User: Which sequence fits this backbone?
């Protein structure tokens, strides 16, 4: 569904990714693992269509995102959700945060009438917001202000915010690296829920155990490229690539 | 006006404040003088700051969201403008509105409109610079989030502006503070004029204070000074309260 083919990207003279290819399909979880600084975030930004590759293509359902005009690219981008390592919630209530993606998909005149309806206490997004918050177990926080949440709760709201508009693809950049085990478990469960809904998920993580827990397939990024993409059990038990084997077994230390 | 001793006991000094509202008493200034001075001060400053805000915030938004050649230069002009001597601004506006100046035909010299012009010039740089700092200070993560959630450029900008609202309110306050406390330029372009009946035409609290103090009318100067401080504090308190209640909270 979402496919990056032969993509390279450098910042200045420094090549971060070289000739990289990866695809995520409907209803599967792909984990991108590798040490810090190997280009996982750059890969996700390429997939999110927020960064243009120097070489290669990024295509959603066969449409090359960087050969179409900006408006078409935005409609492609709107089928993709992304969660960052930091929650980066807006300075507003939980419900305003979660419904944001839905709100910006409405026209300005629709948004105006939404706001007026909101003044008398009706929001057209109640169901979607409730459903998304339910996935991360925070429905009771819906009216609270984002400031009042703990770090873990904020990240769970951030996940719900990306889920609320039902994207086809969900990109998660180290979503749990700042979280305690309990919140991490909630997020991992939510990843499974997203997959069950048919969403293609790419999760970048340096936590190999997490990749083992959540992913159907694993892409191993070492240095500036993918050394291996294979089903999770193959990568962890019987990797084809020698460097992958060393990285998995901890012999290759970065 | 009755002649008052310069040195007074403290209660006597504050007596005029207590008696400000009712009319029938013996004041060191004529009825309506303080009120009209307050009015002129507020009239000029509020209009000038409103105009400045209407100009400054779009500039700050453009500079905060769009890259263009010469941006650093514009930024340094604005920063220089923050420290520009107000008397020089007054002088330049005076030249502009004087009979031989480019705006001479409008007969703006010694009018409130001329005072608004000079306060506008003075208030615009701080409002722009502080707003810009507030906008660029918004966490990049928030911009990224708004963008990946599907926001158009305008939608992303609105999110950033909302995050920056306290900073922008502070900027407007700073501009108002500069405008209402301003002496030099409004003295030059306004002329510090009252009518024969002692009603302010272009006399502001600040220019009145400096004149009263120079004439030895210390208690009048004190009253006006207290009013000025109270005004600034009130406006600050109101804006901070508005910021706290906030949009969308």
Assistant:
């Amino acid at each position: 569904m979402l496919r990056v083919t032969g993509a390279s990207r450098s910042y200045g003279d420094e090549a971060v990714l070289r000739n990289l290819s990866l695809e995520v399909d409907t209803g599967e979880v792909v984990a991108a693992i590798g040490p810090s600084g190997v280009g996982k975030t750059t890969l996700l930004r390429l997939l999110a269509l927020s960064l243009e590759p120097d070489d290669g293509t990024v295509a959603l359902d066969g449409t090359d995102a960087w050969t179409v005009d900006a408006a078409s690219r935005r409609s492609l981008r709107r089928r993709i959700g992304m969660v960052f390592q930091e929650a980066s919630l807006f300075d507003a209530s939980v419900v305003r945060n979660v419904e944001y993606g839905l709100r910006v998909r409405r026209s300005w005149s629709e948004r105006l009438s939404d706001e007026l309806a909101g003044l008398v206490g009706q929001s057209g997004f109640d169901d979607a917001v409730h459903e998304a918050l339910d996935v991360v177990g925070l429905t009771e926080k819906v009216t609270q202000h984002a400031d009042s949440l703990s770090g873990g709760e904020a990240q769970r709201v951030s996940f719900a915010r990306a889920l609320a508009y039902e994207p086809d693809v969900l990109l998660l950049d180290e979503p749990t690296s700042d979280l305690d085990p309990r919140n991490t478990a909630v997020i991992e469960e939510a990843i499974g829920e997203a997959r069950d809904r048919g969403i293609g998920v790419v999760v970048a993580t340096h936590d190999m155990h997490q990749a083992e827990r959540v992913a159907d397939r694993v892409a191993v990024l070492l240095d500036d490229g993918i050394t291996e993409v294979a089903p999770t059990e193959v990568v962890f038990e019987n990797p084809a690539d020698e460097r992958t084997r060393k990285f998995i077994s901890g012999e290759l230390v970065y | 006006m009755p002649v008052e001793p310069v040195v007074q006991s403290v209660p006597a000094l504050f007596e005029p404040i207590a008696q400000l509202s009712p009319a029938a008493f013996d004041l060191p200034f004529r009825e309506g003088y303080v009120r009209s001075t307050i009015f002129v001060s507020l009239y000029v400053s509020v209009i000038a700051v409103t105009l400045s805000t209407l100009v400054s915030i779009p500039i700050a938004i453009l500079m905060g969201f769009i890259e263009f050649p010469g941006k650093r230069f514009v930024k340094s002009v604005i920063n220089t403008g923050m420290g520009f001597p107000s008397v020089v601004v007054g002088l330049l506006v005076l030249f502009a509105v004087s009979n031989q100046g480019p705006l001479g035909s409008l007969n703006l010299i010694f009018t409130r409109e001329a005072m608004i012009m000079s306060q506008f010039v003075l208030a615009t740089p701080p409002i722009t610079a502080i707003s810009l700092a507030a906008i660029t200070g918004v966490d990049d993560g928030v911009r990224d989030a708004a963008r990946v959630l599907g926001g158009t450029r305008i939608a992303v900008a609105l999110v950033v502006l909302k995050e920056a609202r306290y900073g922008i309110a502070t900027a407007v306050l700073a501009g108002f503070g500069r405008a209402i406390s301003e002496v030099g330029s409004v003295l030059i372009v306004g002329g510090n004029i009252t009518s024969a009946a002692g009603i302010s035409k272009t006399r502001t609290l600040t220019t009145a204070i400096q004149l009263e103090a120079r004439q030895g009318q210390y208690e009048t100067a004190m009253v006006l000074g207290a009013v000025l401080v109270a005004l600034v504090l009130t406006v600050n308190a109101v804006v901070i309260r508005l910021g706290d209640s906030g949009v969308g909270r």
In short: The radius of gyration of chain A is 19 Å. Strands of chain A lie at 2-11, 14-24, 29-33, 55-60, 63-64, 80-83, 169-173, 200-205, 217-222, 225-231. The interface with chain B takes residues 48, 50, 74, 77-78, 80-82, 84, 86, 88-93, 96, 100-101, 104-105, 145, 158, 161-162, 165 of chain A (CB under 8 Å). Chain A has eleven helices and ten strands.
